[in-house]
Amino acid sequence: METQILENYLTDRHDVTVIETSVEIPIVSPFCLRNPMVLLKTFTLHHFQHLVEQSQAQIKDQLDYPMNECFVAAGRMEELAVQFVPYLSRYNPRAKILLITHEMADTELVQLFHDAWYRYRLLQLIVLNHRDNDTIDSCVFNPFIKAAFARGSIDFEQPTVRSDLDCTLLTHELEVLPYGWQLKEFVKNRVRNLNGYPVSIAMHISNGSSSAYDCILGAVSITDIDQEVLSTLQTKMNFSMVLHNNELELSIGYIHKNGTPVGALGLIEHNLIDLAANSRIMYKYDTRNLLYLNYISTEKLVFLTPRNYYSNRDKMLVFINPFSVAYMLINIVLSFGVPMIICLLDYLYYRLALPRNTQKNTYGAKVMSLLGIILNLSVRLPRAPHKRWIIVGILLYNIVSYPIWQAVTIRYLHPSNQLVNNINSLEQLLATELKLKVSHYHELIVRSEGSQLHNPLYAQLSDRLTTENTSSLRDAIENIIIDQDSALLISDAYVPLVLAGNYHWVPGKPDAIWPIAKPIYEFYKSMAVPKTSPFIDTFNSIVVSCLEAGMNDRFMHQLESVVQLMKMKRTKEHPIERDYIVFTMAHLSPLFVFYFSMLALSGCIFLLELIVHRIQKARARPQPFIATVETEHAPFEFVL
């Protein structure tokens, strides 16, 4: 019967360790196992104690409690309770334990279970107490249905009595198989229904919600995903909460500069809580007893920066940039320089009294002819080449002025220049003199993010990060809005609330914050438990069920609704007063007035020139035309 019970109890275990004591109680059942997958090891009690002490001295980093181990030991009360159970709790409190005794008194048996759970946190314990050669009293313990807890008491020192144990008297092998099924169901349900058992939980709860949004939300209250998951855990497992309510950073926990775990991390390290319910970044802390549950969500860290940090940089980029400056300078030089060179050459031409017929069909004349065709001139050009070059220079200068008007139009068409006047990348942020701030909680993680440290930008960022005045999210936001000399690394989930918030306590504009859109870091987030917790599997299964039910999406929709309500409230209390001009065609009316005025003026001058020309032609005496060789060549003529 002993062997069959052990086989049923080891269905999910592959490593059996037999501890031999000094008493004459034989251990036969482990050596009769028929499962070839089971690895069997044997230690004496003294050797096992030495092994535990040696392993504890060697462990410098994380504790490791394998889930596939089972320990079998036989002995009397003084050996099991004093020499074996305390050492096993240090070695692997999550292992399954089968203790074999002979004729142990009920008081000793009750005290053994009481100490195993309340002092050493060993829950998966089964005791086979032989009454005689053919009778076994198999006992297990469910501390979560004790009468004291059913009455709402949370006193762990309440004594355990015989009726608190679940004992089954087995007298025949045929009773073992149904008992095995009953035992599996008992073990499964023991950690699924806690019957009001008080579970110690660390969670930041403020303003009715378990979040860091309280300083932003004001009178609005939301329940974030951590609170939703915790509520589901409480409903499914039926436990009461002993709440450790601290500030968010303490509730999440971080490592102090001296290496001490602070907040929830310290409570987990010393097994003072059962669950740290504020999800935190899954990071390898310098702790030994921390275990993460299944990841709940991802956390992306972005920087909040002062809005319009680069004041009027949009104008500089539109009007004064290397390309536009070079383009305009070259065109201006060509527009003025070429005509001046031609004028100088023309002056030398007349000064040196060169023959006039040598200028016929020159390269310059052909160029002027081609330009006249390209520019589609509709008036007669002057006959003198230098005058024509001056006209061409003026036309080119008009072409150069076109980009300036185009830049003015672009400036009006894009009244919101946030992508130009704000910081939009890590490179731009590092080029500023802003104080780069990060919370205590995120500091250790981002400084030690090994996957990014090979990037020079992230190495420079790590050197500049500081935790000065970051203990309060409210203070950090105030510094950005008022002083505009700092930037804060924050979770992207807070950004919509920050941008929609009504900062009544902050003088000045409430929209003085600009977030860098691209996340700087990205991590997984999860709740945390001590590695000794017996509820790990149950917690994980419920968390996975919550995620599969779409709890993340539901929370994001809820958050979006709250943000919209806050924006409506803010618009009502602070009507929008734009600090820029919304572009309409009316803003171009001066340009059209100037254009049509110049057009009308040029038309009047053209008509006046026609009248003067006709009058002068009528008054002029007709003279016979005599063709001479010295007539100045005109490259092209247009008929009016």
Automatic annotation (TrEMBL):
The keyword Nucleus does not apply. It is found in: Cell membrane. SUPFAM superfamilies: Periplasmic binding protein-like II. InterPro entries: Insect_Ionotropic_Sensory_Rcpt (IPR052192). It is a multi-pass membrane protein. The keyword Cytoplasm does not apply. Its main location: membrane. GO terms for cellular component: plasma membrane. The chain crosses the membrane at residues 325-350, 389-408, 592-612. Keywords: Cell membrane, Glycoprotein, Membrane, Receptor, Transmembrane, Transmembrane helix. It comes from the Eukaryota. PANTHER family: IONOTROPIC RECEPTOR 20A-RELATED, IONOTROPIC RECEPTOR 40A-RELATED. This is Ionotropic receptor.
